[in-house]
Amino acid sequence: MLNPVHVQIVLFDGFDPLDVVAPFEVLHAGGTATGGAVSVELVSAEGPREVVSGTGGLALRATGGLDPARPGVVLLPGAAGPLGETPGEDGEPEPGSIPVLLAATLATSLPGLLAEAVGDPAVVVAGVCGGSLIPAMAGLLEGRHATTHHLGLDLLDATGVHAVRARVVDDGDLVTGAGVTSGLDLALYLLEREAGPRVAHAVEELFAYERRGTVWRPAGPVPAAF
Q1: Strand partners, 146
Q2: How far apart are CA 177 and CA 168, in angstroms?
Q3: In terms of Cα–Cα distance, which of 195, 188, 166, 162 is closest to 178?
Q4: 192-200: Cβ within 8 A, 24+ apart
Q5: Helix, strand, coil: what percent of the chain each, to 5?
Q6: Which one, out of 27, 107, 117, 159, has a CA that is 20 to 30 A from the CA of 138?
Q7: What are the residue boundaries of the DJ-1/PfpI domain, all occurrences included (predicted)?
Q8: What is the pLDDT of residues 146-184, one digit of tens each?
């Protein structure tokens, strides 16, 4: 019999909807396939509220507050908006851009809650796309291995993280996914890791989607340069 696994997907202002909905559907299906052993909910640092995404004003409702002490998985999505590569006339990043939205989370209670989660061995912290940058920019992932959207790998590396160019990176109690659609791959891998390959395969078949690429882990011999 499987041990129960609860996943808290964290909403914040400007989140990317696909980073949330894709893992939610995969993990919810995993709950059905396991008879309820896997459960998933949408939360926010502030508690129950309507949270507006960065895509066309689409909002989702957080039904609870993030509990960093609850065993299971805390999953962070990235943000949606302009890339913000060209500063405005005042030299500041473009308002509403992805860097601004991600940086804004650092002024909320989220970093403190994440610090508790990162420090709890019973909690796995996961990130999709820019979601891995939030704890990294908060100084919580120094020396760890992680990935993010390919356009954010340099920033991830600058925070002291060993940035890995892979679709999914498993660093023990830190599991991260790369670009936006990798939320599907990340969630399927979490299902395989927590509930077993047969459950993950059944959900793959249900969604007619096959997880792509090799999950990178800091194990095995270091490959020679090509």
Answers
A1: 163
A2: 4
A3: 166
A4: 194/2, 194/5, 194/38, 194/73, 195/2, 195/5, 195/30, 195/33, 195/34, 195/37, 195/38, 196/2, 199/30, 199/33, 199/34, 199/38, 200/30
A5: 35, 20, 45
A6: 27
A7: 120-192
A8: 999 999 999 999 999 999 999 999 999 999 999 989 999
